[in-house]
Amino acid sequence: MLAAELIKQLTDIVGADNITTSKQDMICYGYDATQMEFLPVAVVHPANAEEVSAVLKLANSERFPVFPRGAGSGFTGGALPKGGGVVLVTTRMNRILRIDTENLVAEVEPGVVTEQFQLAVEKLGFFYPPDPASLKFSTLGGNVAENAGGPRCVKYGVTRDFVMGLELVLPTGEIIRTGGETYKAVVGYDMTRLLCGSEGTLGVITKIIFKILPFPDAKKTMLTIFDSIDGAAKAVSTIIGAKIIPTTLEFMDYATLQCVERRFNLGIPAEGRAVLLIEVDGDRDLIEKQAAQIHELIKPLGLVQFRAARDAAESEELWRVRRLVSPSLRDINPTKYNEDIVVPRSKVPDIIRTIEKIQARYDIPIVNFGHAGDGNIHVNIMIDKEIPGMEEKAHDAIRDVFQAALDLNGTMSGEHGVGLSKAPYIELELSPQQIGAMKAIKAALDPNNILNPGKMFPWRELE
């Protein structure tokens, strides 16, 4: 609990209307998309970098932890106030400051909702590709902090690939700018790329400069169903090997298909064992040729069904299959652990087969879908916490899934980050020397460990 004098000082910084200390009002700032909940001791809503700076300087002086938070849509507890502390919410900083179509850059504040920014750019004929599933409510500051991905990453890259510069407040309260508005900049360390994906442990982002692109002329969506997972995986490497880089290559395994078909009866063929949802974009004539070429390339690979959208309405109908996955999963069990491993594209069949063995070993339903174009598989372990021992088995299964991905030269996380939930497993992937280097960076920028402590790696447990 913070002393009344500290609450008064925080109030003086952000204003009485922008601080919350009542339990009822703070509950919604203590959870995210995980199953974890922690109650903060106060919640502040600063309006600019200067107010953020004042909060962090006070935190250093009085040694209380501060937890940056955007929309709270994360899957690993990265914004949760474990051990109590002050949650610093960035949603008041929600302006699109400018969109420069001559230099193809845009400057925004961190509280702008992802889709809001995309639509603003599109109105001018331009394009911001990163598209996390949470785009309707997640904020751009959170996207940068997590280095968010999405289906279009196979062609366009992740959030980090579009961040050109940042304004941020260091844990000690200094306001700095990194990067800039030029596509080339090699003076000094690349702090911008370091801060992307740092999960709010190295600074609080207060402005972002993004790269934007011209909007593609057209797109073509294809739903392809295969009689085996090997055929679907081979299709991915065959398409890319033919020098076609789709905008999206979304994958769904047999368990996913069963979930969707049981609830929505979409007419998926009985012999279907895997789905690829493929989309290409660019010049209209070119994408029509690419769609025809893709059809010919994948025919010999156990193709059961090929549907190509003729217009935007049909494209939306094909995407409906993918969007219906999440609401279908609750039919299996009420609680979902959603992991986001990545393996090399060619290893997707191997990891799916290994996960099937893990499912049998622990007798827990596991459903797999994700971004096959970059090998990013969302492993959904479905449990019922009312069944004795099931939650414990799920945690053992998660460890085995992580190890299986690492054994195939993959990684434990491609999009969701480490946060709290993956911190206990980080030593599976990173060496003591790597973790030591990370801790040295953290200590240099945050000597009192007040900013988002306990995330990324177990740094100090707060009681």
Count of helical stretches: 16
* Biggest pleated-sheet summary: 7 strands, antiparallel
Radius of gyration: 23 Å
Assign the CATH class of the largest domain: Alpha Beta
Protein structure class: alpha+beta
Task: Kindly state the percentage of residues in helix.
Answer: 25-40%
Mean pLDDT: 95
Count of DSSP E strands? 18
**CATH fold-type name of the largest domain:** Uridine Diphospho-n-acetylenolpyruvylglucosamine Reductase, domain 3
How many domain regions? 4
- Going across the major beta sheet, what is the strand order? 15-12-14-13-17-18-16
Shape: globular
Indicate the proportion of strand residues. 15-25%
CATH architecture of the largest domain: 2-Layer Sandwich
Poorly predicted regions: none
For the record, give the distance between the C-alpha atoms at the N and C termini, rounded to a whole number. 12 Å
Architecture overview:
With 463 residues, this protein is an alpha+beta fold. It contains 16 helices and 18 strands. It has helices at 4-14, 23-26, 49-62, 114-123, 140-146, 153-156, 191-195, 229-241, 254-264, 284-298, 312-323, 325-329, 348-362, 390-407, 426-429, 432-445, and strands spanning 19-20, 42-44, 66-69, 86-89, 96-100, 105-108, 126-127, 163-169, 175-179, 204-211, 213-214, 218-226, 248-252, 274-282, 303-308, 335-342, 366-371, 376-383. The chain has a seven-stranded antiparallel sheet with strand order 15-12-14-13-17-18-16, with helices on both faces. A five-stranded antiparallel sheet has the order 5-6-10-8-9. Strands 1-2-4-3 form a four-stranded mixed sheet. A hairpin with a 4-residue loop joins strand 17 and strand 18 (376-383).
